[in-house]
Amino acid sequence: MNVSILDIVFYAFALLIVMSAGIVVFSKNVMHSAFALMFTLLGVAALYVLLTADFLAMTQIMVYIGGIMILIIFGVMLTTKITNVDVKSKNIQIIPAAILTAIIGGALCGIFWSTKWTVVPTFDVEATASYLGVMLLTDYILPFEAVSVLLLIAMIGAALIARRKA
After folding, report:
1. What are the tens digits of pLDDT across the range 14-32?
2. Crossing angle for the helix pair 129-137 and 141-163, nearest 10 degrees?
3. CA separation for the pair 35, 23 (Å, rounded)
4. Residue 107 domain-assigned?
């Protein structure tokens, strides 16, 4: 079996994504879940880099990690006493859920191991970010600016709602 360095990097990032997504789901601390979500999104961006989708990787980092995650973290930090709240739930359906998860996981593993995967030779891919940047700032400048104004209005509205005193 011939394992390349790209295979090892892929599996490392896939493991990072699965483990941090598990922390997001099972953590009782909201801040731990938020930071684990950041690592999940970073792993997805790394997979985009491995797929030579440079624009998607940069968009993933700038929009989701740079914007959404900062918004979530500040929202959690600015909410009073949210970091000390323990999330409690009754796991009354944990046994049927575990059985169903094991069945689905076993079926997926069986499909994975029984499939004859074909390997195709790779080809050189040129960067797409510069081409998309030129398109956004020439042919699609009006929709691009309209979206930016809409996002600015939403951000100002959110700040006004947050500052309103009860």
Report:
1. 999 999 999 998 888 888 8
2. 90
3. 9
4. no
In this structure, the number of other CB atoms found within 10 A of the CB of residue 44 comes to 19
Region 58-72: mean pLDDT is 86
Domain count, the chain: 2
Domain end marker among 84, 105, 135 = 84
Domain that holds residue 66: 1-84
pTM above 0.85, yes or no: no
CB 37 within 8 A of CB 69: yes
Residue 95 in any domain: the answer is no
- b (16+ CB within 10 A) / e for 21-36: bebbeebebbeebbbb
For residue 106, tell me if it sits in a domain. no
Instruction: Tell me which of 84, 117, 137 is where a domain ends.
Output: 84
Contacts of 152 (CB under 8 A, 6+ apart): none
Write down the pLDDT at residue 103.
97
CA 128 to chain centre: 21
Confirm whether 97 is domain-assigned: no
Separation of CA 69 from chain center: 10
For residue 88, the model assigns a pLDDT of 61
